[in-house]
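dude i think i finally got it to work??
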Amino acid sequence: MSLRSLLLALSRRPGIGRAMDRWGATRRLVRRFVAGTTPADALAVIRDLNARGIGGLVTYLGENVRTPADAEHATGVYLALLAEARRCGLDCAPSLKLTHLGLDLDTQLCETNLTRILERGAGARVWIDMESSAYTERTLDLYARLRPRHPGAATVVQAYLRRTPGDVERLVTLGAALRLCKGAYQEPAALAFPDQRDVDAAYARLAERLLAPDARARGVFPGFATHDERLQRFVIERARTLGVPAEVFEIQMLYGIRHDLHAPLRAGGVGVRVLVPFGEDWYGYFMRRLAERPANLVFLLRNLVKK
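look at this
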């Protein structure tokens, strides 16, 4: 088993997270990727990002809730967060998981909760995150059903899934706002490219498709979620070649990862948006970040040795 596979497997063991929470070194490293436990913690980070010309995305960490009350709580957190962000005049869009809103429990419950958030967003973008491949079809179906009534709805596709080119064609037809990411869940080789080179190549092909003239004519708005400088350059250079205006696409990044790239991208006239997570349920998210960047695991181990 590779290190990435091991870390992804461990991400599904929340008991380990409860033990890790007692280690000071772990808490310090987690704060590199997670703003804190409250909406106020996240909005403080987003206020600072906005001051530097960077847009904000915010996600309340959690997924696969077990009761309708848990789904209602998550919905309430997003509604309150949107209201506070608007009151403060922040450039801040929610980025949420459908299983956090109750998709595992009942599709109608999830749709009702999501609709409340979309209505509170009042036309501003609300990003519907993509989870493992078990949820891909349901997520895209729900997005397609709601988007005609809620044009602010946006969704996500994952370059490592073999099915994604077909999904992108469907979303182009809808004139969707969509985020293209590489994908961070453990998937079988029959469903996802196991080799990183293949994932990168798929990402570049999909990025080019989203920048194509017919996609732009339909109103497609792509957010390119990657910290890979080569792919960022590819997107920017391809957009310039095709004459794509800077305001109709953006680079999206995660809080705590490659923040050194923000200023150069902004100086080059590229829109940048950073996703800021918060909440008590940090463990699964944190482990997936370690899996994506093993250097973070080395940092954690070094700090544990020093204790």
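Confidence is low (pLDDT under 50) at residues 303-307.
im so relieved honestly
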